[in-house]
Structures are given as C-alpha cells and as structure tokens.
Write a structure and sequence with these properties.
10-stranded mixed β-sheet, Peroxisomal Thiolase, Chain A, domain 1, single chain, 3-stranded mixed β-sheet, EC 2.3.1.179, alpha/beta
Amino acid sequence: MTKRRVVVTGLGMVSPVGNDVETSWQSIINGKSGIGELTRLNQEEFPAKAVAELKDFNIEDHIERKEARKMDRFTHYAIVASREAVKDSALDIASNADRIGVWIGSGIGGMETFEKQFETFQKRGYKRVSPFFVPMMIPDMAAGQVSIDLGAKGMNSCTVTACASGTNSIGDAFKVIQRGDADAMVTGGAEAPISQMAMAGFVANTALTLNDDVTKASRPFDKNRDGFVMGEGAGILILEELEHALARGAKIYAEITGYGSTGDAYHITAPAPGGEGGVRAMKQSLEDAGLKPEEIGYINAHGTSTAYNDKYETMAIKEVFGEHAYHLGISSTKSMTGHLLGAAGGVEAIFTVLALKNSVLPPTINLEEADPDCDLDYIPNTAREQQVQAALSNSLGFGGHNATIVFKKYE
C-alpha cells in the first residue's frame, strides 16, 4: 500500500506561557517560564507549591456561558486551541466534513468536574448531581465537543495513555490520513489537572517537585531536580494529506513522517531500566520515517525533571543514536510549561514543528548543575539558532506507554 504524505497546516495552543501559539512560542524561545505559585487551590493543603496555570484565560471570551458550564475545563482548552488551529490552517471543514476527523487525547479528563459533582452528591444526594456530569468528565469529550463545534464528521477518537496521550493521538491521527481514511485531522491533547485530587495523587506518589523556589522548580536534566511541575492547557495541530493541502494552497509548516509506540511491560509508574521501551519507540519512528539516526538534528525530550525519567531517557537516546547522540540538540520545554500530562505531546509537537520551521531550538532553562548521568547537549538556558532537517518529539506515560513522532522540513 502506498503511504500518503501528511503535512502540518495549522497550529493552536493555550498554555501556561501563552494563550495562543505565537505568544507561547516567543515565551519559549526567550526562556520565559509560565510556572508560579498555586493559586487555584488552597496552598496550605499541599506541600507542592509550584504549578503552571493558564493566565488571564476566560472561557466566556470564547464560548457562551450557558454552554461553557456544560463542559469541563480541559474541553474548554481543547475547543479554543482547535479553533485557533483551524483558523490558522484556513481549512474549510464544511466543504469536506465527512473526510475531516478529530483525534484529541487526555490523560485524566474531567477530574475537576468529578470532584465537584462528588462533593454535591455527598452534601445533597444523587438528585442534585448534574445530568452533564458523565459527558463533562469522560476523556473523549474534548474530541467529541470539538467535533460538534467545528462540524467535523470524520473519524472521531481519543487516545488515553497518560502522559503520552497527546503524542499517541497525533501519531494515530497521522496513520488515519496516511492509510486514506481521512483527508485531514484535528489532533493533539488537552488537560486541566490542577485540581485537589490530582494534586493529592501526584504528591502521594512523590512525582511532584517540593522545591520552594517555584521559579526554578522544573529543572530537567539538572543534578538537583526533584520532581515535575503540574501544568495545564491544550496543543492542537491540523494534519492534512499533502495533495489535499496543495490543492487548496495551504501553508505547510512541516511534514510528519514517522510514529513509534511501544509498551514497557514493566511497572505502572516507573520507566523500564535504561529507557528500553523508549528505545524501541524511537527506533520504530525512525524506521517508519525512513530516516537514519544521524539525520535527526533535534529532540524535544519528555524531560519531566524527575530522577528516573531524565536519566533513562538520556540512556535511551544514547542507545538509539550512538555517537550522534552527543551532536544532537535536545531540550525539555517542560522547564517552562511544566508537565501538561495528556496535553504535553500536543504542545511539544507544536514547539518541535516551529523549531524546524524557524531554525530556532528551544532551551532547557534552570539547567545549572550538570548531572553526570545526563551528559548530552540539552541546550542549557538559551535558545539556539540552528537549522535542522528532521526532529523527534518523545512522550512517556504511566503504564509504560512510549510514543515518538518524527517531523521533517517540508520539501
């Protein structure tokens, strides 16, 4: 079967570093962090004080209040980012609705809704629970509501693979177009995890940083890293079959050429030793893209700022790329955005695409003291102007999920 070529024609984002793509990208290349003190919840209830919240975001600027109340926050983010992506792409969905689909992932879905409705149930009984409770909470509802909002009637799906959800969703949507089941897909990830139970759960499993200096709390690959910072938002891409895009004169950011997805079969939260599952995902993605390791110039790393992830991801990169690993530019934009869980892959795919298009590689900020186990080029603290022809974006999730996507400059 001939594989159809797939390109990126639109980008949309709401993130802790900006409520649109351009603002977010300028923050990233200037090393501006979106991480600050927890404001949405009572700080006194949690030892972790650092979070990456959206700033000055009001859903009523985008959706009528009555409709917005029927959706969880993660769906709000997905709709706003999707509208931006579609506008950016100038894609006319109505003229080809049956061939345009939506595939948006989320790791934990409507956790905030679950908490509020359970509190209502405890205090006032089942009759006062909202009839919208279930469709607000379930993780697929970002994809469902975006489909309704945009009128996209093609394949509609949601990948739930914890922190790999966004990257898996993009990869899965890529394959839908490549095999001919759609001409375009609205895809990425959305998450709104800054809620009481999500914070409590991640604190309980010791995943979050307890650093009191919130400005330096997310420090991937640094010797003094001690956990990740919770973030929120959505990153959405328009993927389109090449001939479909060319026929309508679409601008093309990059070409997506490879996808790898593997399971560790090892542990529910810890990565497999040596990043073995990540090794296979990266190798799969390169093989799918028809690229040699030395043709990759940049990696947007999963880079969570946790002890094992950063060490094992480094080991995995060395295993896949050999000596070339030391000549790669690698960065973790989570140093600025925090960890957006199921939305991370969507946001980081956009940063990877823009790095290719603009020939600027984002930095890893707060990298001050080198960890001997993390000895590659992580583009410390300052962005780098550098042309690269191809790049990877990695995402790894609880449950042993590993996902990698490959982007190339469009030629």
